[in-house]
Design a protein that fits this description.
about 1000 residues; alpha+beta; nine-stranded parallel beta sheet
């Protein structure tokens, strides 16, 4: 038995959020947030420099903050993880590394006209200018393929189309603090990065390496994110480049790369031979691995740290090729390979790539950076669904994205919501985090049970590059097969690992690929295979392994025409790119089957394709976790369905209820070498099944009746109501006032008029001083009130701002804050009946630009279109949208207070229709539990005969307060840009979601069974 998993899951399997250090770092504030993380059930945090950082990155004050937080984590039994960059992608040290021109990232730029600013190579490097790599005479066919080409010598004239290929710098950006992307193909640049970043951490907190500080995160490293054959991405066609590539290419292949560079960009018109491009990309991928990934991992290992992180755009072959060339290859050195999921996507290719490296290299954990852009309105059920399917597959180191240190300025728009104390549900989040830690602990035990391997087809995708339509179809075809194969296998419950051709020679020992032994290997539409892969598959097939080809026989080896695969192809199983043909070929290798909608262990039903599973085997049995991996259009309707689960092997079985922390009996039987389990499941429910244990069924009660708690309730708010002020007239310096405009557009308009970089996400960090010559911005807000009342104003930078209301100047003395310390609370505003005019005079700088104001008070608010008015406060709330009952912008908790009279009974509270993070239930001031996912019922509680007070707290979200309220976007994730939507995505009025309890809660009354020996 593993009761400890339920009672006390391991700290290392608790989430460690990205803690966005995005302001001026102060110890008292850091301590406050660490305390909040502990309340939330987190196991620690990643100290992550982020947009808005005011304390100089890696300076003395920054490193003192790192030391302080590390010591606090140690006191609390938490982990303090490191993050290796100022924002992302990693490798430039906040722009410091790329101050050296030799370490600036470069690309090949193909042009049809010369560049007038080019210099000789050495001078160009020093002066940060382009240099000519080669000049060519190319004969083109009409479809952008080549018929012939030659390299031109100096002074030679082209007879056909003259083409110049230059080495140019990757573009400068405020994102790199005014510098460039680093040259991650240059090992000396990575050495400098380690020296300036990792060694500084070591000097400050190196004594905590390997204990309080377990890992360092390297984030989205990429070769330059160049525009693959995309005219207009920069100023030309572009390709990866570093100065050493020509010499390395010659050493490895005995060929002059510069002489044949056109073959990297273009395909032949009258033949198919992709050898040059294949070799170039293979070399580039290997150079990235050696120069960057291996250097970092080696340093971490030597210093007792785990190297973790993820790569950019992992889900598609196109994204991988344009950022890391071959992502699977990069996972090899990482101690904890990882992935990134922007909410609310299910990317099976992304997950399986990193997990395959974990399995084959015998790593303990796989990291997932999850929830990014989840919206302020994300609720507990969505957090649970997104986490459960990943944990089931084996992604057990969770890094929630993002917990804000500060919400000052643009920081508040950085992929919200904040998974931290700015969210009003943070004190209750531990109910979810405890569940996550329990499942992650279980799904890290034992070994994965996977019988199928899939050759990763990235190298075939390289063949499909080019400007011609034939290439476009070829790349689209292999992309489709890549995506479909993962979906078909995982949703038919045939778990698999990817096999990297580049890593295979070092992993294959004649029987196993690393730690994994597969029974079948799929070749998914590959047009080229390495000679080493073909040789391995021959041995694998000869030893009794099954090889399944999808589609035609590969006609290339290492990118050049070859028939070496033909003999193996002709004796293997060959299927078309069609789901059931593939599934039928692999049925003999199935370990788990999950079906639904048939009775009595009858497996004639349909595959439960919206569920995925992970199976782990240990000495006493194993763990099977099944989770929903299909976001629902409607999360409110509860429609339970029966799952029928068939597992190879005869096992005892029980259910670990990881939310309620108890073991439960399962209906199962064993027969003919299989275990059969039958279970009713709710939408979004996950199952953690222990194989090798069983539990006696508990005595249960039976449902008797439902008692409605009524259509209205008394209520209490956890914080003041709010009127959002986000539209103002404006004037810069001595200019006349312009008409009312959206507050964020005002900032952009003024930046454009001053020739400044817009302050919208990609800006230079505030700790790098800019625009010291501050301008004066005047803002005028007009709002109506139907009552005389008193309010407070939530405002940023009150000490630098002059405020007047109806012509009366207000003081600068503040009292507390609203939501975040950066939004100070200016009290005692006298609101009059009728129109009120609030006037603001503030500095306008790179960092200080207009933000939304929040008028706070004990009143109601009514919204009509783009107009909002203060009203009298409602005495009661009717069940339904609270946003239309005086609370349109409210983001705190709402307590609904119901009175009811009952006989003595056992009851549950039921409510399936609400817009809140979760519902917290208490009876007569005693906490009962939470409602956040189907079947939307609280834990059972006892009621004595008589009158009772039942309080249902709708845990608020900040969606109606902090979301881009004028954006025409009700679903999906959002970040900086949605706060400044394009004209066709913008509405003058407020786009406000529903709020609160939308259906009357009811008591479900139960009684004990009359005959406990039956039923």
């Amino acid at each position: 038995m593993r009761e400890e998993i339920l009672k006390n899951p391991k700290t290392k399997y608790r989430s460690v959020p990205f803690w966005a250090w995005n302001g001026e770092l102060k110890k008292e504030r850091l301590l406050e947030e660490i305390e909040a993380f502990q309340v939330m059930g987190f196991g620690g945090f990643y100290m992550h420099a982020r947009c808005g950082l005011q304390t100089p990155y890696l300076g003395d004050a920054f490193m003192e903050a790192v030391r302080f937080c590390t010591e606090e984590a140690a006191k609390r039994g938490m982990y303090a993880h490191l993050y290796d960059e100022d924002r992302y992608p990693s490798g430039h040290c906040g722009g410091k590394i790329t101050k050296n021109p030799a370490f600036m990232g470069r690309q090949l730029s193909l042009r049809f006209a010369p560049k007038t600013d080019a210099l000789k190579e050495e001078d160009a490097i020093r002066e940060k200018r382009p240099y000519l790599v080669g000049r060519y005479d190319i004969t083109f066919a009409q479809d952008n393929t080549m018929r012939a080409y030659s390299m031109l010598s100096e002074g030679e004239t082209a007879k056909n189309t003259e083409v110049w290929i230059y080495s140019t710098l990757l573009p400068q950006s405020g994102w790199y603090n005014g510098s460039n992307h680093p040259d991650v193909l240059n090992p000396e640049a990575t050495k400098a990065f380690i020296r300036e970043t990792h060694e500084k951490y070591k000097a400050t907190v190196g004594g905590a390496f390997g204990n309080v500080i377990p890992s360092v995160f390297t984030d989205e490293p990429n070769i330059g994110h160049v525009g693959w054959f995309d005219i207009g991405f920069t100023d030309s066609l572009s390709m990866f480049w570093t100065r050493s590539i020509p010499n390395l290419y010659r050493e490895k292949y005995g060929e002059d790369l510069v002489a044949v560079l056109p073959e990297v960009f273009y395909n032949w018109a009258d033949k198919e031979n992709y050898g040059v491009r294949y070799r170039f990309l293979d070399l580039t991928a290997e150079l990235f691995k050696v120069a960057y990934s291996e250097q970092l991992a080696t340093w971490c290992e030597e210093n007792h740290l785990l190297c973790t992180g993820h790569f950019n755009t992992e889900a598609t072959l196109a994204g991988q090729t344009s950022n890391s060339v071959d992502t699977m290859r990069q996972y090899a050195p990482y101690h904890v390979p990882g992935v990134d999921f922007l909410f609310e996507k299910v990317e099976l290719t992304t997950a399986k790539q990193a997990l395959s490296a974990v399995h084959q290299y015998g790593r303990e954990m796989c990291m997932t950076e999850l929830y990014g852009g989840a919206r302020w309105g994300c609720d507990f059920r969505r957090y649970k669904m997104q986490t459960d399917w990943q944990t089931a597959l084996g992604l057990t180191l969770r890094v929630p994205h993002l917990a804000f240190y500060s919400m000052e300025g643009e920081a508040k728009h950085d992929y919200p919501a904040s998974i931290g104390p700015q969210s009003p549900w943070y004190k209750e989040f531990s109910v979810l985090e405890n569940h996550f830690a329990r499942t992650a602990t279980a799904m890290s035990e034992g070994d994965p049970v996977i019988k199928i391997g899939v050759i990763h087809p990235i190298e075939t995708f390289w063949l499909g590059l080019g400007l011609d339509k034939k290439a476009e179809k070829r790349s689209a075809r292999i992309e489709d097969i890549f995506q479909n194969t993962a979906e078909w296998l995982m949703r038919s419950h045939l778990d698999f690992d990817y096999i990297s051709e580049a890593l295979l020679p070092t992993l294959w020992d004649g029987e196993k690929i690393g730690k994994m032994q597969y029974e079948a290997i799929i070749v998914p539409g590959c047009q080229t295979l390495r000679r080493t892969t073909a040789e391995m598959l021959e041995v694998f097939s000869g030893n009794g392994g099954k090889v399944v080809f999808i589609g035609a026989c590969p006609a290339f080896s290492d990118g050049i025409p070859s028939d070496i695969i033909r003999p193996l192809f002709e004796k293997s199983i060959c299927v078309p790119p069609e789901k059931f043909a593939l599934i039928d070929a692999l049925e003999d290798h199935r370990t788990v089957e999950i079906r639904k909608n048939k009775n009595n262990f009858n497996f004639e039903g349909v595959a439960a394709e919206d569920y995925v599973y992970g199976l782990r085997k240990d000495a006493e049995g194993g763990w099977l976790m099944i989770a929903c991996a299909a976001p629902k259009e409607n999360y409110d309707i509860t429609a339970p369905e029966k799952l029928y689960i068939k597992i190879k092997g005869e096992h005892k079985a029980c259910l670990y209820n990881t939310v309620d922390a108890k073991r439960e009996a399962l209906a199962y039987k064993t027969e003919d070498g299989y275990t059969y389990i039958e279970k009713d499941v709710q939408p979004l429910e996950s199952l953690l099944i222990r194989l090798g244990e069983d539990v006696e069924p508990e005595e249960t009660t039976v449902y008797e009746k439902r008692i409605s708690l009524g259509e209205k309730a008394a209520y209490r708010l956890s914080e003041e109501n709010v009127l959002v002020l986000d539209m103002a007239e404006y004037a810069l310096d001595d200019a006349v006032f312009a008409e009312k405009e959206d507050i964020f557009k005002i900032g952009d308009i003024i930046c454009a008029s001053l020739g400044w970089e817009p302050n919208r996400g990609k800006y230079t960090q505030p700790y790098i001083k800019q625009h010291e010559d501050a301008h004066a911005l005047r803002l005028r807000y007009r709002f109506e009130s139907e009552v005389e009342t008193v309010a407070a104003l939530g405002i940023e930078f009150p000490e630098k701002t002059d405020v007047s209301l109806n012509g009366v100047p207000l003081g600068k003395e503040t009292a507390g804050y609203y939501i975040d310390h950066a939004i100070r609370r200016l009290p005692d505003l006298k609101i009059r009946k009728g129109e009120n005019v609030l006037e603001i005079k503030m500095p306008f700088t790179h960092h200080i630009q207009p933000q939304v104001l929040y008028l706070l008070g004990e009143y109601g608010v009514r919204v009509r279109g783009s107009h909002a008015c203060i009203t009298a406060k409602e005495d009661i709330l009717y069940i339904g949208d609270a946003a239309t009952q005086g609370l349109p912008f409210y983001g705190g908790n709402i307590q609904y207070i119901f009175e009811t009279e009952t006989e003595a009974c056992t009851a549950r509270l039921s409510c399936n229709y609400f817009r809140a993070a979760a519902l917290k239930v208490s009876m007569d001031e005693k906490d009962v539990g939470f409602i956040f996912s189907p079947p939307y019922e609280s834990p059972a509680f006892a009621l004595s005969e008589g009158r009772h007070t039942i309080t249902v707290t709708a845990l608020g979200t900040r969606e109606n307060t902090l979301a881009p309220l004028h954006a025409v976007q009700e679903k999906g994730w959002y970040a900086y840009w949605q706060y400044r939507p394009a004209e066709n995505a913008h509405t003058e009025g407020y786009n406000l979601p529903k709020l609160g309890i939308l259906k009357a809660p009811s008591l479900l009354v139960y009684k004990e069974k009359a005959d406990k020996s039956t039923g």
